[in-house]
Write a structure and sequence with these properties.
Layout lengths: L5 E4 H13 L3 E8 L2 E6 L10 E6 L2 E6 L16 H4 L3 E10 L2 E6 L7 E6 L1 H15 L6 H8 L2 E5 L25 E8 L2 E8 L2 H8 L4 E2 L2 H16 L10 H4 L7 H8 L5 H5 L6 E7 L5 E8 L9 E2 L2 E2 L4 H20 L9 H4 L7 H10 L1 H4 L1
Helix pairs in contact: 8-10
Pfam families: Fer4_22 (PF17179)
Protein name: 4Fe-4S dicluster containing protein
GO molecular function, one term: metal ion binding
Length: 373
């Protein structure tokens, strides 16, 4: 959608949040809390992480104060937006037995409408990946579809990537391209923040039309472009060039043993990853045996029982489980879904307890087995 840039003040952003809430959306955005930036309910810009940034490195995440009062001056929250569209746990059905009859009650489809504030380019790409997995093909996840169909996205162009970010080398950022209703670029000055705003959909254009705004000047448009260019120049990491399917073809590469000696197989990387989608189901019943229910919950390919069949687990070793994760994420995912399973957000690097770095691992595979030895 070719829409002109408008300028919103902080008060204009407040009006946007109020307008979304007033039209029935549950507005979710970044908030400072629990020692991190977390996604939670927001009712005004007072809830946003004004003056807070973050420091991320392998196995490390810390909030840091900023001196410029930026509202979106952080790189990425630990949580991805996946937890709202594809929740960690949800009820699928319940049943009750009365005498010889069983009353099976499917859980109703979700009706809550979400509006996300502050979605970054890499996270939009991650949502698109989940769309491909959960909405594509013959077997659509109806619960995900219900949440996704009513989603309103206010994206924000990244201004300050973390040392763990590598979206530029994955062609997923830092500039927002598509999949949003409104995109903002924060311009910070001594007078405070103002936002370049551009509609990305008809719904976004209609929402902006009702807000206090003015046309952006050429200087402001140029300043917005400089914000994005600066973010790209400061990208903390890069994925090595080359086809990852070819780089990972050697399943006996000595690097697999090296990473297996460090990996705890805790599954933290799959929990924070915005594209991982694997689930399992759990059945529970009450003590009387009359009430039972089935819940769906996130699962991880790092769990031994993930590949369990009669006779034991197919991937019993940590080496085989890490190899499964990396080769699927970067190689066979392309063959399965037509896209990479990695968007370069770097969460798996920051939240790995031992600091395993996916870009470092791929660089080792690119170097070849002789160099590795």
């Amino acid at each position: 959608m070719n829409a002109p840039d408008l300028v919103l003040t902080v008060e204009g952003l407040d009006a946007l949040i109020s307008a979304l809430a007033g039209t029935g959306f549950r507005v979710i955005g970044p908030t400072p809390g629990e020692g991190a930036i977390v996604h939670d309910d927001v009712s005004s810009t007072d809830d946003l992480p004004r003056g807070w940034g973050d420091e991320q490195a392998p196995g490390r995440y810390r909030l840091r104060p900023r001196d410029d009062g930026a509202l979106f001056g952080y790189a990425l929250a630990p949580q991805s937006w996946k937890r709202f569209l594809h929740p960690p746990r949800e009820r699928l059905w319940s049943a009750r037995r009365e005498g010889g009859e069983v009353d099976l009650r499917p859980a109703p489809l979700p009706e809550e409408r979400f509006a996300f504030i502050g979605v970054r380019a890499c996270e939009l790409k991650a949502i698109a990946v989940q769309d491909r997995v959960l909405l594509g093909g013959a077997h659509v996840d109806a619960r995900y579809a219900a949440r996704r169909s009513s989603l309103f996205v206010v994206a924000v162009n990244c201004a300050d990537p973390a040392a763990t970010c590598f979206c530029s080398s994955m062609q997923t950022g830092p500039e927002v391209g598509e999949g949003h209703d409104v995109v903002l670029t924060e311009l910070v000055s001594a007078e405070g923040s103002r936002f370049l705003a551009r509609a990305g959909s008809e719904a976004g254009a209609a929402m902006l039309a009702g807000l206090p705004s003015r046309p952006a000047t050429p200087r402001e448009v140029a300043a917005g472009a400089e914000v994005i260019a600066g973010a790209e120049a400061r990208m903390g990491r890069a994925m090595p060039p080359g086809d990852p399917r070819a780089l990972l073809a050697d399943l006996e590469h000595p690097r697999w043993d090296d990473v297996a000696a460090r990996c705890l197989t805790c599954g933290a990387c799959t929990q924070v990853c915005p594209t991982c989608f694997c689930t399992t189901v759990e059945d529970t019943s009450d003590l009387s045996g009359r009430e039972t229910a089935r819940d769906q919950r996130w699962d991880s390919c790092f769990a031994t029982e993930f590949s369990f069949i009669h006779g034991g687990a197919v991937r019993a070793s940590g080496r085989s489980r890490y190899r499964q994760w990396l080769t699927h994420k970067l190689a066979t995912w392309i063959e399965q879904f037509g896209t990479s399973g990695c968007v370069g957000c770097g969460r798996c690097i920051a939240w790995c307890p031992v600091g395993i770095d996916i870009t470092e691992e791929m660089a080792a595979f690119a170097a070849g087995p002789e160099d590795e030895r």
